[in-house]
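User: Need the bound-state model for heme C:
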Amino acid sequence: MRHFRPRQWSILLPLALISALISCGKTQSPAVPANPSMESKNPGEPTSAKDPLQIERSSLGDAGPGPSSSNPIPSQEPDPVEVVEPDSSDTEEAPVSLLLSEPEFERRAKLGHLVAKRRCILCHKVDGRGAILQPPLIQVSVRRLERMKIISEHLDQLQADDPDRYQARVDLFNSIEAEPDLLRKMSIWLHGYLKQPTFDNPQAKMPLQVLKPEEIDQLASYVIQLAVEGVKQGVPTPE
Ligand code: HEC
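Assistant: Bound-state model below.
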Protein backbone atom coordinates (compact mmCIF):
# COMPACT_ATOMS: atom_id res chain seq x y z
CA MET A 1 0.00 0.00 0.00
CA ARG A 2 2.73 2.42 0.92
CA HIS A 3 4.52 1.91 -2.35
CA PHE A 4 1.35 2.27 -4.33
CA ARG A 5 0.52 5.80 -3.31
CA PRO A 6 3.62 7.54 -4.58
CA ARG A 7 3.11 5.82 -7.90
CA GLN A 8 -0.41 7.05 -8.01
CA TRP A 9 0.90 10.58 -7.45
CA SER A 10 3.48 10.07 -10.06
CA ILE A 11 0.70 9.64 -12.55
CA LEU A 12 -1.60 12.29 -11.13
CA LEU A 13 0.96 15.01 -10.73
CA PRO A 14 2.03 15.14 -14.37
CA LEU A 15 -1.62 15.04 -15.36
CA ALA A 16 -2.37 17.93 -13.06
CA LEU A 17 0.61 19.84 -14.43
CA ILE A 18 -0.42 19.22 -18.01
CA SER A 19 -3.97 20.36 -17.38
CA ALA A 20 -2.66 23.41 -15.54
CA LEU A 21 -0.44 24.23 -18.50
CA ILE A 22 -3.30 23.85 -20.91
CA SER A 23 -5.54 26.13 -18.91
CA CYS A 24 -2.70 28.63 -18.62
CA GLY A 25 -2.27 28.63 -22.34
CA LYS A 26 -5.96 29.22 -22.73
CA THR A 27 -6.05 32.23 -20.44
CA GLN A 28 -2.94 33.70 -21.99
CA SER A 29 -3.96 33.25 -25.55
CA PRO A 30 -6.41 36.15 -25.67
CA ALA A 31 -3.75 38.46 -24.24
CA VAL A 32 -1.20 37.40 -26.82
CA PRO A 33 -2.63 39.24 -29.80
CA ALA A 34 -2.93 42.42 -27.74
CA ASN A 35 0.66 42.44 -26.57
CA PRO A 36 2.59 42.34 -29.83
CA SER A 37 0.61 45.25 -31.18
CA MET A 38 1.46 47.34 -28.13
CA GLU A 39 5.05 46.27 -28.24
CA SER A 40 5.41 47.10 -31.87
CA LYS A 41 4.17 50.60 -31.09
CA ASN A 42 6.82 51.38 -28.54
CA PRO A 43 10.12 50.72 -30.29
CA GLY A 44 9.09 52.52 -33.46
CA GLU A 45 7.25 55.34 -31.71
CA PRO A 46 7.39 57.62 -34.73
CA THR A 47 3.76 58.46 -34.17
CA SER A 48 4.16 60.13 -30.80
CA ALA A 49 7.49 61.74 -31.62
CA LYS A 50 5.85 63.49 -34.53
CA ASP A 51 8.84 65.43 -35.69
CA PRO A 52 12.48 65.62 -34.74
CA LEU A 53 11.87 68.84 -32.85
CA GLN A 54 9.94 67.07 -30.20
CA ILE A 55 12.55 65.58 -27.99
CA GLU A 56 12.42 65.06 -24.32
CA ARG A 57 11.54 68.12 -22.35
CA SER A 58 14.37 67.55 -19.93
CA SER A 59 16.66 69.23 -22.43
CA LEU A 60 14.93 72.49 -21.63
CA GLY A 61 17.16 72.68 -18.62
CA ASP A 62 14.44 72.85 -15.98
CA ALA A 63 14.96 69.85 -13.78
CA GLY A 64 11.31 69.03 -13.40
CA PRO A 65 10.42 65.94 -11.40
CA GLY A 66 8.86 64.14 -14.36
CA PRO A 67 11.64 63.95 -16.90
CA SER A 68 14.46 63.56 -14.38
CA SER A 69 12.84 60.62 -12.65
CA SER A 70 12.24 58.78 -15.90
CA ASN A 71 15.68 59.62 -17.21
CA PRO A 72 18.40 60.07 -14.60
CA ILE A 73 21.03 61.26 -17.06
CA PRO A 74 19.22 63.44 -19.56
CA SER A 75 22.19 65.59 -20.50
CA GLN A 76 24.08 62.64 -21.92
CA GLU A 77 21.48 61.90 -24.54
CA PRO A 78 20.82 64.87 -26.74
CA ASP A 79 19.69 62.65 -29.62
CA PRO A 80 16.64 63.99 -31.42
CA VAL A 81 15.01 60.58 -31.57
CA GLU A 82 14.39 60.41 -27.87
CA VAL A 83 10.98 59.03 -27.12
CA VAL A 84 8.46 61.46 -25.73
CA GLU A 85 6.18 60.50 -22.86
CA PRO A 86 2.73 59.66 -24.16
CA ASP A 87 1.01 62.77 -22.73
CA SER A 88 0.83 63.95 -26.30
CA SER A 89 -1.37 67.02 -25.80
CA ASP A 90 1.39 68.66 -23.80
CA THR A 91 4.33 67.76 -25.97
CA GLU A 92 2.53 68.64 -29.15
CA GLU A 93 2.05 72.17 -28.00
CA ALA A 94 5.52 72.92 -26.72
CA PRO A 95 8.00 72.48 -29.51
CA VAL A 96 11.39 71.62 -28.21
CA SER A 97 14.47 71.53 -30.33
CA LEU A 98 18.11 70.81 -29.76
CA LEU A 99 18.61 74.55 -29.86
CA LEU A 100 17.23 74.75 -26.33
CA SER A 101 19.80 72.37 -24.91
CA GLU A 102 22.77 74.20 -26.40
CA PRO A 103 24.78 75.86 -23.63
CA GLU A 104 25.35 78.82 -25.95
CA PHE A 105 21.63 79.26 -26.36
CA GLU A 106 21.06 79.33 -22.61
CA ARG A 107 23.88 81.79 -22.14
CA ARG A 108 22.52 84.11 -24.82
CA ALA A 109 18.99 83.86 -23.45
CA LYS A 110 20.22 84.89 -20.02
CA LEU A 111 21.92 87.94 -21.45
CA GLY A 112 18.88 88.63 -23.59
CA HIS A 113 16.76 88.65 -20.46
CA LEU A 114 18.94 91.45 -19.09
CA VAL A 115 18.74 93.42 -22.34
CA ALA A 116 14.96 92.98 -22.42
CA LYS A 117 14.62 94.32 -18.88
CA ARG A 118 16.40 97.48 -20.01
CA ARG A 119 15.09 97.91 -23.51
CA CYS A 120 11.70 96.33 -23.97
CA ILE A 121 9.80 97.29 -20.81
CA LEU A 122 9.01 100.72 -22.24
CA CYS A 123 6.20 98.93 -24.06
CA HIS A 124 6.07 95.24 -23.07
CA LYS A 125 6.01 93.80 -19.59
CA VAL A 126 9.00 91.60 -18.79
CA ASP A 127 8.79 89.44 -15.62
CA GLY A 128 5.52 91.19 -14.87
CA ARG A 129 7.21 94.59 -14.83
CA GLY A 130 6.98 97.42 -17.31
CA ALA A 131 4.51 99.29 -19.44
CA ILE A 132 1.16 97.96 -20.57
CA LEU A 133 1.18 99.88 -23.85
CA GLN A 134 1.71 96.60 -25.64
CA PRO A 135 1.08 92.99 -24.70
CA PRO A 136 3.65 91.43 -22.35
CA LEU A 137 6.73 90.11 -24.08
CA ILE A 138 5.82 86.51 -23.24
CA GLN A 139 2.48 86.87 -25.02
CA VAL A 140 3.86 88.30 -28.24
CA SER A 141 6.58 85.62 -28.10
CA VAL A 142 4.03 82.80 -27.92
CA ARG A 143 2.02 84.36 -30.72
CA ARG A 144 5.12 84.69 -32.87
CA LEU A 145 5.94 81.02 -32.31
CA GLU A 146 2.42 80.18 -33.48
CA ARG A 147 2.86 82.35 -36.54
CA MET A 148 6.11 80.62 -37.46
CA LYS A 149 4.06 77.53 -38.28
CA ILE A 150 2.44 79.34 -41.19
CA ILE A 151 5.36 81.57 -42.17
CA SER A 152 5.59 80.06 -45.66
CA GLU A 153 2.12 81.25 -46.54
CA HIS A 154 2.91 84.69 -45.19
CA LEU A 155 6.09 84.91 -47.25
CA ASP A 156 4.30 83.79 -50.41
CA GLN A 157 1.78 86.54 -49.82
CA LEU A 158 4.54 89.07 -49.22
CA GLN A 159 6.29 88.07 -52.41
CA ALA A 160 3.08 88.59 -54.35
CA ASP A 161 1.94 91.81 -52.65
CA ASP A 162 5.20 93.57 -51.93
CA PRO A 163 7.94 92.14 -54.17
CA ASP A 164 10.40 94.92 -53.35
CA ARG A 165 10.20 94.27 -49.64
CA TYR A 166 10.52 90.57 -50.33
CA GLN A 167 13.56 91.01 -52.56
CA ALA A 168 15.30 93.24 -50.02
CA ARG A 169 15.57 90.29 -47.59
CA VAL A 170 15.23 87.37 -49.97
CA ASP A 171 18.28 85.58 -48.55
CA LEU A 172 16.89 85.73 -45.06
CA PHE A 173 13.48 84.52 -46.23
CA ASN A 174 15.08 81.65 -48.10
CA SER A 175 16.93 80.56 -45.00
CA ILE A 176 13.71 80.69 -42.98
CA GLU A 177 12.10 78.44 -45.57
CA ALA A 178 15.05 76.07 -45.67
CA GLU A 179 15.25 75.64 -41.90
CA PRO A 180 13.28 72.61 -40.72
CA ASP A 181 13.49 73.34 -36.99
CA LEU A 182 10.65 75.63 -35.91
CA LEU A 183 12.63 77.35 -33.18
CA ARG A 184 15.60 77.96 -35.43
CA LYS A 185 13.21 79.34 -38.03
CA MET A 186 11.93 81.68 -35.35
CA SER A 187 15.46 82.71 -34.49
CA ILE A 188 16.15 83.73 -38.09
CA TRP A 189 12.83 85.58 -38.23
CA LEU A 190 13.58 87.45 -34.99
CA HIS A 191 16.94 88.55 -36.32
CA GLY A 192 15.13 90.16 -39.24
CA TYR A 193 12.44 91.66 -37.05
CA LEU A 194 14.65 93.08 -34.33
CA LYS A 195 16.84 94.69 -36.95
CA GLN A 196 13.88 96.13 -38.83
CA PRO A 197 10.35 95.40 -37.58
CA THR A 198 8.81 96.05 -40.99
CA PHE A 199 11.16 93.63 -42.76
CA ASP A 200 8.36 91.23 -43.68
CA ASN A 201 5.30 93.32 -42.98
CA PRO A 202 4.74 96.99 -43.90
CA GLN A 203 2.03 97.15 -41.22
CA ALA A 204 4.28 96.15 -38.31
CA LYS A 205 3.71 98.68 -35.53
CA MET A 206 6.78 98.20 -33.41
CA PRO A 207 9.14 101.17 -33.79
CA LEU A 208 12.68 100.38 -34.84
CA GLN A 209 14.76 99.41 -31.83
CA VAL A 210 18.39 100.37 -32.11
CA LEU A 211 20.23 97.24 -31.02
CA LYS A 212 23.73 95.89 -31.41
CA PRO A 213 24.09 92.63 -33.35
CA GLU A 214 25.00 90.73 -30.19
CA GLU A 215 21.98 92.18 -28.40
CA ILE A 216 19.82 90.92 -31.25
CA ASP A 217 21.35 87.43 -30.87
CA GLN A 218 20.67 87.52 -27.16
CA LEU A 219 17.14 88.86 -27.45
CA ALA A 220 16.27 86.31 -30.12
CA SER A 221 17.30 83.49 -27.78
CA TYR A 222 15.41 85.04 -24.88
CA VAL A 223 12.22 85.55 -26.90
CA ILE A 224 12.36 81.90 -28.06
CA GLN A 225 12.87 80.72 -24.50
CA LEU A 226 9.92 82.86 -23.38
CA ALA A 227 7.74 81.45 -26.15
CA VAL A 228 8.46 77.85 -25.15
CA GLU A 229 7.84 78.64 -21.48
CA GLY A 230 4.68 80.48 -22.40
CA VAL A 231 3.32 77.53 -24.35
CA LYS A 232 4.04 75.21 -21.44
CA GLN A 233 2.27 77.57 -19.05
CA GLY A 234 -0.67 78.04 -21.41
CA VAL A 235 -0.07 81.79 -21.68
CA PRO A 236 -2.79 83.40 -23.81
CA THR A 237 -1.86 85.07 -27.04
CA PRO A 238 -2.95 88.65 -27.69
CA GLU A 239 -5.31 89.47 -30.59
C1 HEC B 1 8.08 101.70 -28.29
C2 HEC B 1 7.34 100.49 -27.93
C3 HEC B 1 8.04 99.17 -28.08
C4 HEC B 1 9.24 98.77 -27.56
C5 HEC B 1 10.24 99.58 -26.75
C6 HEC B 1 9.38 97.38 -27.90
N1 HEC B 1 8.31 96.96 -28.62
FE1 HEC B 1 7.99 95.08 -29.30
N2 HEC B 1 6.25 95.63 -30.07
C7 HEC B 1 5.74 96.93 -30.06
C8 HEC B 1 4.52 96.96 -30.82
C9 HEC B 1 3.64 98.18 -31.06
C10 HEC B 1 4.31 95.64 -31.26
C11 HEC B 1 3.14 95.12 -32.07
C12 HEC B 1 2.13 94.62 -31.08
C13 HEC B 1 1.21 93.61 -31.66
O1 HEC B 1 1.41 93.22 -32.80
O2 HEC B 1 0.32 93.16 -30.92
C14 HEC B 1 5.40 94.84 -30.78
C15 HEC B 1 5.54 93.49 -31.03
C16 HEC B 1 6.63 92.75 -30.66
C17 HEC B 1 6.82 91.37 -30.99
C18 HEC B 1 5.87 90.48 -31.80
C19 HEC B 1 6.16 90.67 -33.26
C20 HEC B 1 5.45 89.68 -34.14
O3 HEC B 1 5.00 90.07 -35.23
O4 HEC B 1 5.39 88.52 -33.79
C21 HEC B 1 8.01 91.00 -30.47
C22 HEC B 1 8.66 89.64 -30.57
C23 HEC B 1 8.56 92.15 -29.82
N3 HEC B 1 7.70 93.19 -29.95
C24 HEC B 1 9.78 92.14 -29.20
C25 HEC B 1 10.31 93.26 -28.59
C26 HEC B 1 11.57 93.26 -27.94
C27 HEC B 1 12.50 92.07 -27.81
C28 HEC B 1 11.77 94.50 -27.46
C29 HEC B 1 12.97 95.04 -26.71
C30 HEC B 1 14.17 95.10 -27.48
C31 HEC B 1 10.63 95.29 -27.85
N4 HEC B 1 9.75 94.50 -28.52
C32 HEC B 1 10.48 96.63 -27.55
C33 HEC B 1 6.28 98.01 -29.45
C34 HEC B 1 7.47 98.01 -28.77
